Amino acid sequence: MRRAALVAGVVLLAACGGEGGPPGGMAVRDAWVRPTAPGVTSAAIYVVVENVDAPADRILGASADRCSTVVPHQTVVDENDVASMPGVLGDELDLPPGAVVTMEPLGLHLMCLGVGEPIELGDDMELTLTFDVHDPMTVPVVAANR
Ligand SMILES: [Cu+2]
């Protein structure tokens, strides 16, 4: 809450996605991807997106250079311990000012589909997130086991 008070004064000045503008707006951090399992051509990408001081927004989609398609998923475990990953259509990707969307194992993630060369531990890739309002943002993603 203290942070919200600090940035409140900046909101009117910060041009969302503007060239050379002040830091702030949208922050994309801690992006990592699980290495692909043998014979598997998909991998889960995890990332944290924070609307620091940008107008209300929403993650519209994503792409990555190692994936033919990237789709948001939510891992769901049913009463029989069977996990499924339905696509995300609800408000999970909404980013009102100050909101943080945290993608982490057993929860929300970006599914990288159509992986060509296997993704190995330590590999790098690039993830681009697109938003309803904000300019697209590209961040490095490292392959890790966490
Ligand atoms: Cu998935």
CATH superfamily: PCu(A)C copper chaperone
Helix and strand composition category: mainly beta
Largest sheet: 9 strands, mixed
Query: Which compounds are bound in this model?
Result: copper (II) ion
The helix tally amounts to 1
Question: Please, how many domains?
Answer: 1
What share of the residues does DSSP label as strand, in percent? 35-45%
CATH architecture tag: Sandwich
Cα gyration radius (Å): 16 Å
Which percent bin holds the helix content?
under 10%
N-end to C-end Cα span: 29 Å
Fill in the CATH topology: Immunoglobulin-like
Q: What's the overall geometry?
A: globular
CATH class: Mainly Beta
Question: Order of SSEs, N→C?
Answer: HEEEEEEEEEEE
Number of strands: 11
- Look at the structure and give the mean pLDDT: 87
Low-confidence sequence ranges: 4-21
Name its key features.
146 residues; 11 strands; mainly beta; 42% strand; binds copper (II) ion; two-stranded antiparallel sheet
Question: What's the arrangement of secondary structure elements?
Answer:
Elements: H1 2-8, E1 26-33, E2 42-51, E3 57-64, E4 69-74, E5 76-77, E6 83-84, E7 94-95, E8 100-102, E9 108-113, E10 124-131, E11 137-143
Parallel strand pairs: 1-11
Antiparallel strand pairs: 1-2, 2-8, 2-9, 3-7, 3-10, 4-9, 5-6, 10-11
